[in-house]
Design a protein that fits this description.
By secondary structure, the chain is of the alpha+beta class. It has 19 helices and four strands. The chain has a four-stranded mixed sheet with strand order 1-3-2-4, with helices on both faces.
């Protein structure tokens, strides 16, 4: 199967697995094969397919090509930079998902270079005038959050949808799916060629994802001196504890400024579990998050926060007439295809294919999907459908603003 397979190949497979701390059973479970097949690979009686070999390389954090040489195994740097240690006590599923993100960043950086396109944000724009060096003083979180809101002209109300907002600021956001027991909500990585990138675990409510995005945005603004950091519950170094604490506080004030929260609560005429849900809906954050912000600002007692957090959100949503979907955990995806990527990535890849600088199979390889998905979802002609709203608004909104021309020239 592999023309340059050497005698050390099976031994290297075993060595890489053992150094990663994984058992044959764990590897088999992640790859969806039998433990017996893993054993046959490591004995040299069978050879893994190209697909399985790529998965093994990601799982073990090994450069794939080093399996085929007589030299020692060569390990990738990504996860080691993120965790400051080998593996970071991750589950095999988490390792595979994070490695796939890091590999995509490598490949996409190469793609942008070949296209002659600018990389993503690599440092903080000078016009932001942020403090020099890393900032970890939680007492400055509120002031800094309000300053960023002012610099981006966001006012005091709900922030824009952050997936799109960060993409517009040239921070590449990548969606992945990790089990809840992984304890990982997101990650920030300063890729040496590509620039700033954020990983978001979509196995959480949309409100929780919003907090993760704001949290990682704080790392990009104030902690870019770090190569990367993973937002997780356990295994943090003392330095990581400090930067995580600041990022949490900054994200809280950035998403829901204290003054705006107090004013909005006053408009609602008093606080209750129902009005708390309305506040969460207003600021586009999770119900649990808004309870903590209300307690942060001294608007509810700790006991109220704990009691209100026990109520069923579906019942509260029905009481006040807000959509429940944004507060519930999304269904488990079978597989994340093009949904992983932000608009900037999909637009760049689509343009390259349409202008014949990239083949369909090349686009499929870059985006980790099959060619059928590229043709069906990224390149297919736009279908047409009857638009009742257009008919309704034609008489009401078919006008030209004063001082504007009736004919638009493009190009």
């Amino acid at each position: 199967m592999f023309a340059n397979l050497n005698r050390s190949f099976p031994q290297k497979l075993r060595e890489a697995r053992e150094k990663s701390g994984l058992t044959q059973e764990q590897v088999a479970q992640v790859l969806g094969v039998s433990q017996e097949l893993i054993a046959l690979w490591e004995k040299g009686d069978r050879v893994p397919s190209s697909l399985h070999l790529g998965q093994l390389a990601r799982l073990y954090g090994v450069k794939r090509e080093s399996f085929f040489t007589d030299k020692p195994l060569e390990y990738t740097k990504g996860l080691r930079l993120l965790f400051r240690e080998e593996g970071g006590n991750l589950s095999p599923e988490a390792i595979l998902e994070l490695q796939e993100w890091l590999e995509f960043l490598d490949d996409y950086a190469d793609f942008l270079r070949e296209e002659g396109e600018e990389p993503y944000l690599k440092g903080i724009p000078k016009d932001l005038k942020l403090p020099k060096g890393p900032l970890t003083d939680v007492r400055q979180a509120s002031t800094q959050a309000l300053q960023i809101r002012e610099l981006y002209k966001l006012g005091q109300d709900a922030v824009p949808e952050l997936y799109t907002f960060l993409d517009e600021q040239r921070i590449l956001v990548y969606k992945g799916y990790l089990p809840a027991e992984s304890g990982i909500w997101g990650a920030f990585y300063r890729h040496p060629q590509l620039g700033f990138s954020v990983f978001v675990n979509v196995n959480s409510t949309l409100g929780r994802q919003t907090f993760t995005l704001a949290h990682e945005f704080a790392h990009a603004l104030y902690h870019y001196h770090l190569a990367g950091i993973v937002c997780r519950r356990d295994g943090l170094s003392p330095e990581e504890v400090e930067v995580e604490r600041f990022a949490n506080a900054w994200a809280a004030h950035f998403l829901v400024p204290g003054k705006a929260l107090r004013e909005q609560a006053k408009r609602l005429g008093g606080l209750s579990p129902e009005t708390a849900l309305l506040l969460a809906n207003h600021f586009r954050v999770s119900y649990t998050f808004i309870l903590f912000r209300l307690h942060n600002e001294g608007l509810i007692e700790r006991e109220e926060r704990e009691e209100w957090s026990k109520y069923r959100l579906e019942d509260l949503a029905l009481r006040v007439g807000v959509p429940y979907e944004i507060f519930r955990l999304p269904p488990v995806p079978q597989y994340l295809d093009l949904e992983r990527y932000p608009p900037s990535v999909l637009l760049n890849v689509r343009k390259a294919v349409e202008e014949e600088r990239l083949s369909v199979s090349g686009a499929a390889g870059l985006l980790r999907v099959d060619s059928t998905t590229i043709e069906r979802e990224l390149l297919a002609d736009l279908g047409e459908e009857e638009n009742q709203e257009a008919e309704e608004l034609r008489e009401e909104l078919d006008f030209v603003s004063p001082g504007r021309k009736t004919h638009v020239r493009r190009g």
